Amino acid sequence: MVIESSPDVPASHNHDLLDEEKLDGEGSDRQLDLVSNDGEKDSQPVEAAALAEAKPTGSPGPPGGPVPNGGTQAWLQVLGSWILFFNTWGILNTFGVYQTYYEGGSLFQASSSDIAWIGSIQAVMLLLTGAVVGPFYDRGHFRWLLVVGSFGVVFGHMMLSLCHTFWQALLAQGFVIGIGAGMLFVPAVAIMPTYFSTKLGLALGIAASGSSTGGIIYPIMFYKLINEIGFGWGVRILGFTALVLLIVPLAVMRMRVKPGRVRAVIDLSAFTDGPFMLFVLGCGVGFIGLYVGIFYLSFFGQATGITDASLSFYLVPILNAGSVFGRTLPNWLSDKIGPLNVIAPGAFMVGIVLLCNIAVHNVGGIVVTVVLFGFFSGIFIALPPVLFVGLTKDKSKVGTRIGMGFALVGCGVLAGGPGGGAILQRKGSANSDLDWTGTWVFGGVCAIAAGVILMALRCWRVGFKLMVKV
């Protein structure tokens, strides 16, 4: 998707957006240049620049023209994107219950690290596929991406229901569902800036909350169904549920403008863009810690005996319930004070909460840490797309940069789950031998390191000023 500034924004409106914003409401003689990757000052603050210029090129006539920024059709796109997030990241956020179920050995025998590869591959396939299929979206194949992606998600569930070995589950759940979800993720994200230029952070936050809602509903369904009708039919019903829901985006989502040219899969200039690469590094390191928590908090409760088997499964929907608020309220706040001012403290808090698990020894403690982890992890998941836009000066490269950024961040996803599993079972696979302290230190330190990197990025761009929107 190609994104650049549009001539339909009135001059007076542009003038308002170009003024630097300070949190105390005072004016300033210094203009921020976060969207610039060289010494030239760009007079737009990050959020204003990202939102004012995040418009696709194409014909100015119908169905193009000014960005609607509201109305029935625009909010239907938010609904459609919400359902796509529900059935992409919502499914991925469910993997904690699969990790706990597979650890029991009733379906196949595998180590914690091996099992984590299934969820990690699933997430990486989503991110890599999203980067590769971006040009198909730019060519106008919006509906084909929805159809093929929906088929992949549903077909993957049907194949998973027939699995009895680790490698079968890896192929069906890791690769097939992951690739299908990646095809759906592109339309879910790419269509939003074509309908919203103002309050884009809020619109994306509402859409992204679908992943948290899916992470609440799907784990509960999975736990109830496997106890009532077994793993096979339980997973099939999850697949049928996804099939019914994915009809809605096909019915309501419309590509408003077709990009003027097809994006490149790789933008080599990104590798010399210091702020962009520093942000990618911060996200990648942060996702290592993030996925330690997502994969192992449920199993932690069961393996240590802090919770019974039932509550351990419910920890995943509890986590995702906290994430609903973490993906919406901070996104609204980011429109006010700037996304970098929100995501950096969020990364620190993710690390602190993970380290707090070392001292957890009762049900109340684990529930509190799970809720807090869900909230702060929601910040770290929902805001990167907004910052990828803001850190790209040439808006015609936004689509490529988002795809590249998420693909590189996928390295952190690969390291988080399997790395945490390897540390967890380094002394043995029996519950009494599991090294939970080492696992939480690994995840917590990585998340805190991400916070340090993001704060370094903030200092790079605006120095040590506190009351600046960035």
UniProtKB/TrEMBL annotation:
<dbReference type="GO" id="GO:0016020">
    <property type="term" value="C:membrane"/>
</dbReference>
<keyword id="KW-0472">Membrane</keyword>
<feature type="domain" description="Major facilitator superfamily (MFS) profile">
    <location>
        <begin position="73"/>
        <end position="461"/>
    </location>
</feature>
<dbReference type="InterPro" id="IPR050327">
    <property type="entry name" value="Proton-linked_MCT"/>
</dbReference>
<feature type="transmembrane region" description="Helical">
    <location>
        <begin position="276"/>
        <end position="299"/>
    </location>
</feature>
<feature type="transmembrane region" description="Helical">
    <location>
        <begin position="311"/>
        <end position="330"/>
    </location>
</feature>
<keyword id="KW-1133">Transmembrane helix</keyword>
<feature type="transmembrane region" description="Helical">
    <location>
        <begin position="115"/>
        <end position="137"/>
    </location>
</feature>
<feature type="transmembrane region" description="Helical">
    <location>
        <begin position="436"/>
        <end position="457"/>
    </location>
</feature>
<feature type="transmembrane region" description="Helical">
    <location>
        <begin position="402"/>
        <end position="424"/>
    </location>
</feature>
<comment type="similarity">
    <text>Belongs to the major facilitator superfamily. Monocarboxylate porter (TC 2.A.1.13) family.</text>
</comment>
<feature type="transmembrane region" description="Helical">
    <location>
        <begin position="173"/>
        <end position="193"/>
    </location>
</feature>
<feature type="transmembrane region" description="Helical">
    <location>
        <begin position="144"/>
        <end position="167"/>
    </location>
</feature>
<feature type="transmembrane region" description="Helical">
    <location>
        <begin position="233"/>
        <end position="255"/>
    </location>
</feature>
<dbReference type="InterPro" id="IPR020846">
    <property type="entry name" value="MFS_dom"/>
</dbReference>
<dbReference type="GO" id="GO:0022857">
    <property type="term" value="F:transmembrane transporter activity"/>
</dbReference>
<feature type="transmembrane region" description="Helical">
    <location>
        <begin position="74"/>
        <end position="95"/>
    </location>
</feature>
<dbReference type="InterPro" id="IPR011701">
    <property type="entry name" value="MFS"/>
</dbReference>
<feature type="region of interest" description="Disordered">
    <location>
        <begin position="1"/>
        <end position="47"/>
    </location>
</feature>
<keyword id="KW-0812">Transmembrane</keyword>
<feature type="transmembrane region" description="Helical">
    <location>
        <begin position="366"/>
        <end position="390"/>
    </location>
</feature>
<feature type="transmembrane region" description="Helical">
    <location>
        <begin position="342"/>
        <end position="360"/>
    </location>
</feature>
<dbReference type="Pfam" id="PF07690">
    <property type="entry name" value="MFS_1"/>
</dbReference>
<protein>
    <recommendedName>
        <fullName>Major facilitator superfamily (MFS) profile domain-containing protein</fullName>
    </recommendedName>
</protein>
<feature type="compositionally biased region" description="Basic and acidic residues">
    <location>
        <begin position="24"/>
        <end position="44"/>
    </location>
</feature>
<feature type="transmembrane region" description="Helical">
    <location>
        <begin position="200"/>
        <end position="221"/>
    </location>
</feature>
<dbReference type="InterPro" id="IPR036259">
    <property type="entry name" value="MFS_trans_sf"/>
</dbReference>
